[in-house]
Amino acid sequence: MATQKVEAPLEAEETPETVVVRFAGDSGDGMQLTGGQFTLSTALAGNDLATFPDFPAEIRAPQGTLFGVSAFQINFGSRAINTAGDAPDVLVAMNPAALKVNLPALKPGGLVIADTGEFSKRNLDKAKYDVNPLEDDSLAKFDVLAFDISAQTIEAVKPFGLGNKDALRCKNMWTLGLALWMFDRPREPIHQWLKAKFKSKPDIADANIAALDAGHAYGETAEISGPLKQLHMPPVPSAPGLYRTVTGAEAVSLGLVAGAQLAELPMFFGGYPITPASAILHHLVRLKEFGVTTFQAEDEIAAICAAIGASYAGSLGITSSSGPGIALKGEAMGLAIMTELPLVIVNSQRGGPSTGLPTKTEQSDLYQAVYGRNGDAPMPVIAARSPSDAFEVAIEACRIAVEYMTPVMLLTDGYIANAAEPWKVPDPKGFTPFPAKFLEQKNDGDNLLPYKRDAKGARPWIKPGTPELMHRIGGIEKHELTGNIDYSPANHQAMTDARKAKIDRIAVPDQDVALGDTSGKLAVVGWGSTYGPIHQAVRRSREKGLDVSHIHVRHIWPLPGNLGDLLRGFDHVLVPEMNTGQFKTVLRDQFLVDAQPLTKTSGQPFQIAELEAAIASYFDGQPGDAGGEEVDANDQQLPSPKAVNP
Amino acid sequence: MNEMTSPKDMVTTTLKDWETDQEVRWCPGCGDYAILKAVQRTLPQLGADPAKTVFISGIGCSSRFPYYIESYGFHTIHGRAPAFATGAKLANPELDIWLVTGDGDGLSIGGNHLMHVLRRNVNMQIMLFNNEIYGLTKGQYSPTSREGTRSPSTPLGSVDHPARPAAFALGAGARFVARGFDVSKKLPEVLMAAHAHQGAAFIEIFQNCIVYNKDVFDDFAAPKGAEDRQLWLENGEPMLFAGGRQGLTLDRDELCLKVVEVADGDWEAAGVIVHDVTNRIIAHMLVEMPFGPFPMALGVLYDDLRPTFESGVIEERERATTGKTADLVKLLGSGQTWTVSGTAADPV
């Protein structure tokens, strides 16, 4: 690939294996765009990476305020990465508020790049700084590179005759240019992207390109020897093949499309706008050629009801939402359970309760997913652990829904939905098809028995339009074979048992151990997006000689059959979760194991160091018990786990 | 002619073919029995195919309806039937969908969905059984109950103003609005007109709840002696009632309808207006017309075609997929990609 090397990269021993960079600015500064393009250039450079977009719930919060700060963190390196990193090495702060909000996260000795052009009295006031932090000694423990990025940008785009406001909008590209230089990245792909993005406004494209090049040149001219150095990260040795970056929302969408194809069904997606789930609707609406029909309903309830109506008529019905929307869908889920129709419900969890933290991440809908319906309403629940894992999990959700005639809930979260990572593009042929079967003729001699079950406990799927198979279904308890209304005591007992048995018997793969031994002193059990930090914390602890294993559960309900025995093989079970201990409760209830919670509900993912400290507390007096303090927070690599690059 | 029953698809059935083996569980004497019979009488006349006919309902007395029709049926949840029906219709536009709802199901808990299915104009027949009461939950007042209705939840009489189903439908953008009542011999005719309309066809059917709200419609729907208070609308015909002795005229100064006496059948001289089913303004006046000073407007009040939702969805899909193939391998490998061979990464 074409690279522009201005000077020899630093000596190998000075090049860290991973770097964490956080771009922070006002929500109008285009930080997510900057981060996204930097991610792409990082992926093209062959580095592994993980990202964490962190943005406010407001679309355009008042400029310069603390609550209007938008940030994008990327962890990348020449070894496998599976978290967005704990503490940034580099913080790009586009204004005082961005500095104030993000500085506490910066690693001691880290580099601050600040735009002095934005450190006006007015902006300092808005960020509640009495004194300009760039001018006192409050940043003494960091390297600081402060200069007027705004002025540099205006100068760079002068030839294009933009107004001051439009010119300043190119600041993010100037900054990206500097970042590209710092990490020895080619500019060409970004040039191409800008040309495509502003196809109808070539002036704007040219101005942005000029800003990008100027930022890059600024690094090159090396007037600033000081803290600014160019780093060249060698590519990660990855399995040969085709790669792309993927966010969780994209991976879920692609997985659902693949799942519907494997089921040989048209897909019907009913959705209602909600953060952070809307991205799935946005992706699927563009995939009509795959037999996808999308429907933006009048509310969350209509979205799921329309999906169930479509499943009833022979499509694979899918709906997606986030916590509050999922709550609204609860009654309809009960109907899908009662009428035993396939349905996939994607829940991109966010901080709750109520509206909670729409743009922040949490895992606090597990109770809602497993238990949150009226009546005995068993429903399979599976959880994705990373953006790329979401692809496989979405296929698995479709499989269970179609094979067992049941709604299935797929849990992701705001972190997975928005975060990006490199993904080795899978071959669809690697997945076993599970074609849906529709009943075409009467299944009991001259009679139709709509609730006669197969070996899996599933009833037949009967499409309206099929001659001779007219029948009625509904939410009222029904006879265990005919489906006619039947409130009789023995029948309700039998149907409750049958609905439970069907879900209990779902073929769930045995639980494996993600890292470590299958028995020992401590098992750290996670689910969902905590995979990355748990994995790294366990790896580091094991390197220090601690007897700890990482178990990561995909199938939340029903749980893998061997999980109880597996957990009983450990002296201690620690369950880190971004909630107040929900999966812990399920494990205790199902297996009578003394699962201990480690909880966090700050809206931010776990840091590796805090998990390491929790692990260390189980090993008092043993070498390595000091936990996170001993280890550099960014030393966190291991061979790429299978699930990240299936 | 409805799109799913072009002549070649007409199926010959009798009333008996549309009866199920299910025991009907409505109270003896309930108006629902008469509506059920009217529907079972209508379906053979339409040439409807039981295998392609789907009755979808919400919750309430009316919503038990699908169990008693020998077709496909889906008894869903309270108020949401329009959403299920929309999904089913989009998944298979060939299905002939009849929605069954009531005043509580359709206008209270499900008002939102009813509004949107009408606005979107999803092709189906929507029968709203209006008995002005919650029957299945034992007699509470409903959104269509008249002011002062005494019920277990309003022992001193209700104070809220009732919703008017036909006015609601028209306001929501319905392109077909009709009225009938349970024991009316003309109900099948109204249902046939609704079926012939391509789009969401809304039919308010006054239904006598003999247990909780007995005979509230007797002033115009009593088996005998109420005919004079019924205005049966016919497209292209003068708006006459009371055996042609009275009619409706348009007061062009006040912009309102007025009742006029017709002498010797000379309705033109009396200024009686002719019903035009496509006249939306007059339709608004007809659905707002207070019963008492005016007769009850029945039959097809409004009928004016507009493209259906599902046809729009299908057209858009065809446009968007022209020249595209469903290549999953290509889709997964789309976006900005790179290949890894050995240790070098190359943009693709």
UniProtKB/TrEMBL annotation, chain A:
InterPro entries associated with the record? 2-oxoacid/accept_OxRdtase_asu, PFOR_II, Pyruvate:ferred/Flavod_OxRd, Pyrv/ketoisovalerate_OxRed_cat, Pyrv_Fd/Flavodoxin_OxRdtase_N, Pyrv_flavodox_OxRed_cen, THDP-binding, Transketo_C/PFOR_II
Q: What's a GO biological-process term for it? A: response to oxidative stress
* SUPFAM superfamilies reported for this sequence: Pyruvate-ferredoxin oxidoreductase, PFOR, domain III (SSF53323), Thiamin diphosphate-binding fold (THDP-binding) (SSF52518), TK C-terminal domain-like (SSF52922)
Q: Domain Pyruvate flavodoxin/ferredoxin oxidoreductase pyrimidine binding spans what residues? A: 266-446
Task: Indicate the segments forming the Pyruvate:ferredoxin oxidoreductase core domain, all copies.
Answer: 522-581
One molecular function GO term is: oxidoreductase activity, acting on the aldehyde or oxo group of donors
Name of the featured protein: 2-oxoacid:acceptor oxidoreductase subunit alpha
The species is Qipengyuania algicida
Automatic annotation (TrEMBL), chain B:
UniProt GO MF annotations: oxidoreductase activity, acting on the aldehyde or oxo group of donors, iron-sulfur protein as acceptor; thiamine pyrophosphate binding
Question: InterPro entries recorded for this chain?
Answer: 2-oxoacid:Fd_oxidoreductase, THDP-binding, TPP_enzyme_TPP-bd
Keyword list (alphabetical) reads: Oxidoreductase
Q: Transport: is it a keyword of this entry?
A: no
Claim: Hydrolase is one of the keywords in the record = no
Q: Which residues form the Thiamine pyrophosphate enzyme TPP-binding domain?
A: 59-205
Q: Which Pfam families match?
A: TPP_enzyme_C (PF02775)
Which CDD domains does its entry note? TPP_OGFOR (cd03375)
Quick one: a GO biological-process term for this protein? Answer: cellular respiration
Task: Give the domain of life.
Answer: Bacteria
Q: What is this protein called?
A: 2-oxoacid:ferredoxin oxidoreductase subunit beta
